[in-house]
Amino acid sequence: MQNPGGMILYLVFVAILVGAYLGIRREWAPPAAIAAVCVVASFIAILLISLVQGNSIYQAIFAGLLVGGLFSGGILGMAWYFHKNEYAKAAPPEESQREE
Q1: Which of 32, 54, 59, 76 is deepest in the core (most CB within 10 A)?
Q2: In three state form, how does the secondary structure of 7-55 look?
Q3: Which of 99, 42, 29 is closest to 72 using CA atoms?
Q4: Residue partners of 13: CB distance under 8 A and separation at least 6
């Protein structure tokens, strides 16, 4: 990458994904709100990265939707999976599972 603005935008994109992962895992806000902000911010970050690299607006929109959506979906899926597992381990066993 020859443009330093693109590298800065990549770092912003990484910060968005890390923030979304930690936000869901640590319950900083409702998961639906975090997911919505993550998807929109990822789309905008990838759109801007694509524009900085000299792509047309249509290519940038397509890249933003595809790459931003896939990365944010993957991060949100992982965070939600581990979040649910933490609560499953912390919850007391149900009456039907207890030994008598």
Answers
A1: 76
A2: HHHHHHHHHHHHHHHHHHHCCCCCHHHHHHHHHHHHHHHHHHHHHHCCC
A3: 42
A4: 42, 45, 46, 49, 71
- The whole-angstrom separation of Cα 73 and Cα 91 is 27
Looking up tokens 């499953």 gives: 88
Give the span between the Cα atoms of 46 and 50, in whole angstroms: 6
Q: Which two tokens stand for residue 7?
A: 């590298």
Tokens 């000299």: give the residue: 54
**pLDDT (tens digit per residue) in 15-66:** 999 999 999 888 889 888 999 999 999 999 999 999 998 899 999 999 999 9
Q: What is the pTM for the complete model shown? A: 0.78
Q: Are 36 and 91 in contact (CB under 8 A)?
A: no
Give the integer Cα–Cα distance in Å for 4 and 52: 9
